[in-house]
Design goal:
- This protein is 43% helix and 24% strand.
- The model has no long low-confidence stretch (mean pLDDT 88).
- β7 (188-190), α7 and β8 (214-216) form a beta-alpha-beta unit.
- It is elongated, with a radius of gyration of 23 Å.
- The strands form 2 sheets. It has an 8-stranded mixed sheet, with helices on both faces. A two-stranded antiparallel ribbon has the order 1-2.
- The protein is built from 12 helices and 10 strands.
- The longest helix is centred in the N-terminal third of the chain and has 25 residues, at 59-83.
- The chain is α/β, with parallel strands linked by helices and 295 residues long.
Length: 295
């Protein structure tokens, strides 16, 4: 049994689609399909049920995927032990993070790390979604909720706060806001409920009762830009809003506290490049802890 074919099959099993797996593997779609078909022919068994929307593992496919993951885990352990003896950090580490933290903190910090290590490729994915470590969507993932299941290396990264903000020009045009009742009738810039991937994003409901006028944006970046543009008020991350002097923090008694959790997979956590990125994220957040929580 050829390991390269098994490795490609495992990626298809995780992705659920040939095209998605091919993109992740940086291979041609036809090459991926040919490898999996060749593996099935060699084993004389069907591993995948092909459908127009994707593919589903057969019983035999599930058994092979489980065995392949075990073999992959052993390879990674060997890589970790060998890699620890070398001086340079080489390879790719993918980091999945909420878009607020990713865009307004990690993009700068991890860029600095990549500049220090020429052989290290850091792939930052600052997206409003969750990431599966078991399916290798990321090597390190930062979540808004503490994971309750799965094989994970887990630690609390930091608490952070959010407050009500508006642009100075908005306040000059529409009037000052000194108490909660002053929010009545204002345009409220907030998230799109249908795309809220975590209960931690539900802070906006505390003020939603005061106004029925909403401008909904699915990303933190879009919300901040809309508030900066002077179009309405919004609940924004304090560490991100603090970058923009034109934003004014309102109603200091209205404050929301949330947490970031740092996770990695036991199979890859000891790989030196993953460890280095993991340590760097922890150290960077620790040194900037004061900016994450407002008084």
């Amino acid at each position: 049994m050829d390991w390269e074919s098994v490795r490609i099959f495992l990626e298809v099993a995780r992705a659920g689609q040939f095209r998605k797996a091919a993109k992740h593997l940086r291979l041609n779609h036809a090459t991926v399909a040919r490898q999996v078909t060749g593996l099935e022919n060699g084993l004389k068994v069907k591993l995948l049920e092909r459908h127009t929307s994707g593919c589903v593992l057969t019983v035999e496919g599930e058994a092979l995927a489980a065995a392949a993951e075990g073999a992959e885990s052993e390879f990674l352990k060997v890589e970790a032990s060998i890699g620890g003896a070398t001086g340079s950090i080489i390879g790719t580490v993918r980091v999945g993070a909420p878009d607020g933290l990713g865009n307004y903190f990690l993009a700068d910090q991890l860029g600095r790390l990549a500049a220090i290590h020429p052989g290290l490729v850091v792939q930052l994915m600052p997206l409003p979604r969750t990431f599966s470590l078991s399916r290798r969507e990321a090597d390190i993932a930062i979540t808004l909720d503490r994971p309750k299941q799965g094989r994970l290396i887990l630690s609390k990264l930091t608490d952070y706060t959010l407050s009500v903000y508006a642009a100075e020009r908005y306040l000059a045009r529409e009037g000052r806001i000194e108490k909660e009742s002053d929010l009545t009738g204002r345009l409220f810039v907030t998230h799109v409920d249908d795309f809220a991937y975590s209960p931690a994003l539900d802070y906006a409901s505390a003020l939603g009762r005061l106004t029925s006028r909403r401008y909904e944006c699915s990303s933190v970046v879009a919300q901040i830009e809309a508030v900066r543009g002077g179009h309405g008020i919004g609940i924004l991350h304090d560490y991100a809003a603090g970058r923009h002097p034109e934003l004014r923090r309102l109603l200091p008694e209205v404050r929301f506290v949330r947490s970031y959790w740092l996770t990695s997979h036991p199979d890859t956590h000891e790989v030196r490049r993953v460890q280095e990125v993991h340590r760097f994220i922890v150290a960077s957040v620790k040194s900037s802890r004061a900016s994450f929580c407002s008084d």
